[in-house]
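User: Study the fold:
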Amino acid sequence: MLVFLVFAVGAGLLAYLDDRVLGGVIAALAGGLVLIGFLSVIGLIWIGLRGLWRTLVTPPEPDDEEEEPARPLAERAASGRP
């Protein structure tokens, strides 16, 4: 965020000092936004592919503890345990 602020202040200063630079500044800002968008899309694709890889390829880890088999409700109520 700080980089964008510094870039915007510098671009504004250049545009203020010389109107001929304004087109180049606008083009640079637009190019920066396109680059940021492109890198964001690449990052989202990477995160999605990594999640898909972990889901499909990596085997699930075995449970460390065994679950107690379900007991009938009457038996649970009689024992006092939920």
